[in-house]
Amino acid sequence: MEAFILGTGGMMPLPGRFLTSVLLRREGDLLLFDCGEGTQISLKSLNLRWKKITTIFISHTHADHITGLPGILMLSSQVDRSEPLTIIGPPKIREYIESSRRVLDMFINYEIIIKEIENPEISSVVYETPDFTVRSIPLNHSKVCVGYVLEEKDRPGVFFPEKARELDIPVGPLWSKLQNGIDIEHEGKIIESSEVMGDSRKGRKFSFVTDTAYVPEIAEDVKDSDLFICEGMFEHALLSSAREKKHLTSTQAAKIAKKAGGIKKMGLIHYSPRYTERDLKNLLKEAKEVFPETFLCRDRMRLKIPYED
């Protein structure tokens, strides 16, 4: 699994800093989190197969998080897309998409599935596959806003072929069943998968939080994340402005990560346009004083999310 940072800015795009968007690639799944202006440019620059995006998760309907959507929807009609595209977000996302299609007279030749989160004030599973789930988590912004947490389901444990041989189980379909956690019958005896498999292994966890006032409860949702992408819009000196606008300082983001526990890395994102590239070092410095495993997200950065050893 790997994450691609497509944009890191808030409010307005800048040269070299597009608006916030992150693409997560997991096996054959391409999942997009927010779709700010400039998203298409970063996708093209990274040579990603953006037409294979299956699901787009929108945090809220402020312009700097959704203005890239119309372009993605229209462009997908030019590449012989046959698979449906699912878009998930809080209330108003359906109205935004449908009005954009109407006003722009979009030609769409594939199915668009829109799922509005019915109760964004509570954490709930909004997307699920046999291998992972995505939950929305409530945030506190000037408009209804949610974060997202992707959690892989536990994987089967390590298969020990020597134990299978000791039980005289022939190589082939029976081994495959045991590896998939299925008990088998062999030579009149029931052999349980646990006899030849180690303990199940923990899956990976990715969390995405942007545009929120400081909410301590976020920590419980994002704990044990292998990668936590979190907004750090302001430095601590602008705490009063952050509170007024319901955004996080980099220090507050770090406090969430520290309180959560188990987070391997936190990437700051969604910077105020007031900060130059040099200024961003101050945001990083303040965050690292609280949570040392913090780094600055940069446009078109690629981040691998490996399994635990």
What does this protein look like?
With 309 residues, the chain is an alpha/beta fold. The protein has two domains: 2-154 and 202-296, Ribonuclease Z/Hydroxyacylglutathione hydrolase-like (Metallo-beta-lactamase, Chain A, 4-Layer Sandwich), CATH 3.60.15.10; 161-195, no CATH class. 25% of the residues lie in helices and 25% in strands. It is built from ten helices and 16 strands. The strands form three sheets. A seven-stranded mixed beta sheet has the order 6-5-4-3-2-1-16, covered by helices on one side. Strand 7 and strand 8 form a beta hairpin. Helix 9 (250-260) runs parallel beside helix 10 (280-290). The radius of gyration is 22 Å and the shape is globular.
Summarize the structure.
The chain is of the alpha/beta class.
CATH class of the largest domain: Alpha Beta
Taking all Cα atoms into account, the compactness measure Rg is 22 Å
Instruction: Estimate the global geometry from the Cα principal axes.
Output: globular
User: What CATH architecture of the largest domain would you give?
Assistant: 4-Layer Sandwich
- Within the largest sheet, what's the order of strands? 6-5-4-3-2-1-16
**Contiguous helical run count:** 10
By CATH, the topology of the largest domain is Metallo-beta-lactamase, Chain A
